[in-house]
Write a structure and sequence with these properties.
By secondary structure, the protein is of the alpha/beta class. It folds into two domains: about 80 residues, no CATH class; about 140 residues, no CATH class. It has five helices and eight strands. It has a five-stranded mixed barrel with strand order 2-3-4-8-5. Helix 1 runs antiparallel to helix 4. The chain is elongated, with a radius of gyration of 32 Å. The mean pLDDT is about 80.
Length: about 270
């Protein structure tokens, strides 16, 4: 037991606490975080892939009575008949489409016999750096559109602002746009498909790539396992060195009492 007393020194205790805390974080925070992102990405990829071959359904069939949408309806193709409200429009700024900067035009669409819903009509490229280009107005009169149902984005910390009589926002959040335009809107929004009435530059679908999240999650699990093993290896190496030092002392002074051997072994082991 005396040879293991070094484990009670402050330095070893601190090291053990750090290793335990690191392993705990690996298993309870870091690995679940990455694996959760992998699950979310895989689920979204499956929805996109299924929506490509699925026939569009009426928007009203996908909305709940409170005009929200079920989680599994994300990316589903829907149709809606109604009319645009051209004067009810905001621009989403700082967007990137095909690795180039863009603005996205968000216009309110009044569904016949249904709610008003925000429609992402597509993108336009900025002029002269970041200047907003002329945005073609939405068509007047009744139209039928084909679009994809989308959940609101995470709201940006940056506040919207008014420029040249038109609001600009940093994220697509229908509730925020509803407050700006003073128009009640449905919870989700629509991303217009290519070739639809009022459409601008069509926004491409995300690439169906699961990303590195699964491998990152496995790596954090491996780190959580290896950290205690590494600590055990250092403890084993320290014990082996102390035993070797004690054997060397005993070989030099064969008649030395046991307690003196242990004191000398401790002294040599600390060097």
């Amino acid at each position: 037991m005396r040879r293991l007393a070094f484990l009670l020194r402050p330095g070893w205790i601190a090291l053990a606490l750090v290793v335990v805390a690191f392993a705990y974080l690996c298993f309870t925070v870091l690995a679940p975080w990455q694996l959760g992102k992998n699950t979310k990405t895989s689920r979204e990829n499956n929805r996109i892939a299924q929506s490509v071959s699925a026939d569009p359904v009426p928007l009203k069939d996908e909305l709940r009575p409170d005009h929200s949408m079920p989680e599994d309806s994300e990316w589903r193709r829907v149709t809606a008949t109604g009319h645009y409200l051209p004067d009810q429009q905001v621009l989403a700024r700082l967007r990137v489409v095909d690795a180039k900067p863009a603005y996205e035009a968000l216009t309110v669409f009044q569904v016949d016999g249904g709610p008003a819903i925000l429609v992402d009509r597509g993108y336009v490229r900025p002029e002269q750096g970041t200047s907003v280009p002329p945005v073609p107005p939405a068509p007047a009169g009744q139209v039928t559109i084909n679009a994809r149902l989308r959940e609101p984005e995470q709201q940006s910390e940056k506040a919207p602002f008014l420029e040249n009589g038109q609001y600009q926002v940093y994220s697509i959040v229908p509730l925020q746009v509803s407050t700006l335009l003073k128009t009640p809107l449905a919870g989700p929004y629509l991303q217009l498909a290519e070739g639809q009435p009022g459409g601008l530059g069509a926004i491409p679908l995300p690439q169906l790539d699961a990303g590195p999240f699964l491998s990152y999650g496995i790596q954090w699990i491996a780190f959580g396992i290896l950290a205690p093993i590494g600590l055990g290896y250092f403890v084993f190496s320290e014990i082996r060195q102390r035993r070797a030092a004690a054997a060397a002392v005993k070989a030099v002074k064969p008649g030395t009492p046991q307690t003196t051997e242990e004191r000398l072994a401790d002294r040599y082991g600390r060097r």
